[in-house]
Amino acid sequence: MGHRHPSKLKNPEVSHARARWLLRAELAGCDACRAEGDEDALSDLASGGVFDSLITGFVLSRVQQWHSPSRPSQYPATVYRIASIDERDFWQPPTQHCMRVCTVTGAEGDGVDTVPALRELRLMSTADRSLVLDDVIDGLAETEG
């Protein structure tokens, strides 16, 4: 597309330029750019790629929201285990599956091991990958909004 979507993204963990572009298109409500960005993400399942950056940004933005003093998390931990029940219930089944193998790492929960989730995404149909992408983008947009 020949236009830009101005936005000050608050999520520095979404580091891939194309992933940030897709998130800005989502926030701007631009369907044409969103469709183009979705195609990019669905086809780029490499470590450090578009989908990886989106998952990483999503998880790191949510970890702090999920933290509960009454239920402290110890890392490493799967995303599914530390996510709030309300959040897990919101996710589509393919997203739940990916989050069962995606791991939050680091002493403070400041890292994400997405390799197993990316491996699972490669085994999924494009329709299931799209469901995961939609859940991740919705979660990121919610934290940006």
> What percentage of residues falls in helices of 4 or more residues?
55-70%
Rg over CA atoms, rounded to whole Å, is 15 Å
Strand content: 5-15%
**Count the helices. How many?**
8
Q: Can you count the beta strands?
A: 3
The backbone outline, from C-alpha atoms, is globular
Task: Please trace the helix and strand order, writing H or E for each element.
Answer: HHHEHHHEEHH
Cross-sheet strand order for the largest sheet: 1-2-3
Let me know the average pLDDT: 90
Structural class: mainly alpha
Main β-sheet description: 3 strands, antiparallel
State the end-to-end distance.
Answer: 24 Å
> What oligomeric state best describes the polypeptide chains here?
single chain
Runs in which pLDDT lies below 50 for 5 or more consecutive residues are none
Which short descriptors sum up this protein?
3 strands, mainly alpha, 145 residues, 8 helices, three-stranded antiparallel beta sheet, globular
